[in-house]
Amino acid sequence: MSAQDIADRAGLSVTLVRRVLRTPAQGQAARDIARTTADAILGIPIPARREPGAPGLTDATEASRLLSDLARAGWPATALAQRLHVSARTVAEVRDKRPRLHLHLALRIRRLHRDLISLEPAGYGIHPTDIARTRAAADRRTAMIGSG
């Protein structure tokens, strides 16, 4: 939960919540918190975890590599996005430049890679022209990374 989420649910100012969440500098004692403030913050129910039980952000390096593998195998971003329930732009950003992503998306990408990497896209309704275009673009990205 963000400081803003906590403030909204506790009925406190976001500034106060940020002060409470700030860790004291080394050598400084922790500040006292008014009991009403502590009760307001501690009384917030913890939100239910999102599927598959993995909230938070993680490094996108592995997911980027897995999506690049699928592109080299001929799987277009639109087909992958449809299976991941995200936009094609999200797939392209994770594959090419996004430094972090939600852990639940990283786990879905890992599962998708495991399921699709050994399959031929043409057998799943992907047009041969789209397969060739996807493979060519993946080769260009690989060549740019190798020369950069």
Assign a percent range to the helix content.
55-70%
Q: What is the helix/strand order?
A: HHHEHHHEHH
Percentage of residues in DSSP E strands = under 5%
Cα(first) to Cα(last) distance is 39 Å
User: Which overall shape is indicated by the principal axes computed on the Cα atoms?
Assistant: elongated
Number of helices: 8
Structural class: mainly alpha
Name the strands of the widest sheet in spatial order.
Answer: 1-2
Task: Summarize the main sheet.
Answer: 2 strands, antiparallel
Total beta strand runs: 2
Low-confidence stretches: none
What value does the average pLDDT take?
Answer: 84
Integer-rounded radius of gyration = 22 Å
Count of domains: 2
Describe this structure in words.
With 148 residues, the chain is mostly helical. The chain folds into 2 domains: 3-42, no CATH class; 57-147. The protein has 8 helices and 2 strands; from the N terminus they run H-H-H-E-H-H-H-E-H-H. The protein has helices at residues 3-10, 14-21, 35-42, 61-72, 77-84, 88-96, 103-116, 128-147, and strands at residues 57-59, 100-102. A two-stranded antiparallel ribbon has the order 1-2. Helix 4 (61-72) runs parallel beside helix 7 (103-116). It is elongated, with a radius of gyration of 22 Å. The two termini are 39 Å apart. The mean pLDDT is 84.
Key traits:
2 domains; 148 residues; two-stranded antiparallel sheet; mainly alpha; elongated
Write the layout of secondary structure elements.
Blueprint: H1 3-10, H2 14-21, H3 35-42, E1 57-59, H4 61-72, H5 77-84, H6 88-96, E2 100-102, H7 103-116, H8 128-147
Antiparallel strand pairs: 1-2
